[in-house]
Write a structure and sequence with these properties.
By secondary structure, this protein is an alpha/beta fold. It folds into 2 domains: about 1-75, Winged helix-like DNA-binding domain superfamily/Winged helix DNA-binding domain (Arc Repressor Mutant, subunit A), CATH 1.10.10.10; about 85-195, Rossmann fold (3-Layer(aba) Sandwich), CATH 3.40.50.720. The chain has 9 helices and 10 strands. The protein has a 7-stranded mixed sheet. A 3-stranded antiparallel sheet has the order 1-3-2. The structure holds nicotinamide-adenine-dinucleotide. Its main location: cytoplasm.
Length: about 210
């Protein structure tokens, strides 16, 4: 598998390439050079060619990349040529905002299931998802073959929920809870923290002369 030797920084850039070429395709641009693609992302053309070369020969020397072809290949590489069912755990303020954002669905990422502990929420609809009792976690994950979970519960419950998700068969966790989850090596965890971005802004404003 070529991905094994692919640097993490390259993998992190793949969604950026994908977003760019998708935008170009929607404008009916047919061909893009590595120079132009690099400028859109803010990296040198040599890096673009190197990144994409890990996955095959997509470009033509002196011509560039066929946009439609690159869209298809990036979808395949990123696993976006299929749709994924996700389970949200914690249907609170953040969970609701995530479910109500339409952009994930366009990528084939469907938060079709939700779990919560609050009796006032259980049984309600959140987007397409019915909110189930957290006690149903194992059954829901197993029966629906869910591989990806979105974690948006209070800090103190995050690890035990993660353990249960993994035990039930979840392979990847999109973790919004500000705790480091202790998981087996084969489990992918992506930690998100919006406040880090915001605090970096206050840092720059506070350090201006
Ligand atoms: N990463 C970020 O940028 C970011 C931004 C906002 C919030 N957060 C984090 O996300 C989490 C949720 O924040 P929020 O503002 O949505 O809180 P919230 O209180 O509005 O929602 C939490 C939800 O989790 C449910 N819950 C509590 N214990 C549970 C359990 N054991 N099992 C299942 N559901 C349970 C609650 O009933 C509630 O619906 C917090 O950990 C918060 O720190 C992260």
């Amino acid at each position: 598998m070529p991905e094994i030797r692919t640097p993490a920084t390259t993998i992190e850039r793949l969604p950026l390439y994908y977003r760019c070429v998708q935008k170009l395709a929607s404008k009916e641009v047919e061909v893009i050079s590595s120079q132009e693609l690099g400028e859109m992302i803010g990296i040198p053309s040599t890096q673009v060619r190197k990144d994409l070369s890990y996955y095959g020969e997509f470009g033509r020397r002196g011509v560039g990349y066929e946009v439609d072809n690159l869209v298809k290949n990036l979808e395949r590489i990123l696993g976006l040529n299929e749709s994924w069912d996700l389970v949200l755990v914690g249907a609170g303020n953040l969970g609701q905002a995530l479910v109500n954002y339409g952009g994930f669905k366009k990528l084939g990422l469907n938060i079709n299931y939700a779990l919560d502990i609050d009796e006032n929420k259980i049984g309600n609809k959140l987007g397409n998802a019915e909110i189930h009792d957290i006690d149903e976690l194992e059954e829901l994950v197993t029966e629906n073959n869910i591989n990806i979970a979105v974690l948006a519960v209070p800090d103190e419950d995050a690890q035990q929920i993660a353990d249960r998700l993994i035990e039930a068969g979840v392979k990847a966790i999109w973790n919004f809870v500000p705790v480091r989850l202790d998981v087996p090596d084969e489990i992918e965890v992506r930690n998100e923290d919006l406040s880090i971005g915001l605090i970096s802004l206050t840092y720059y404003l506070s350090n201006q002369n």
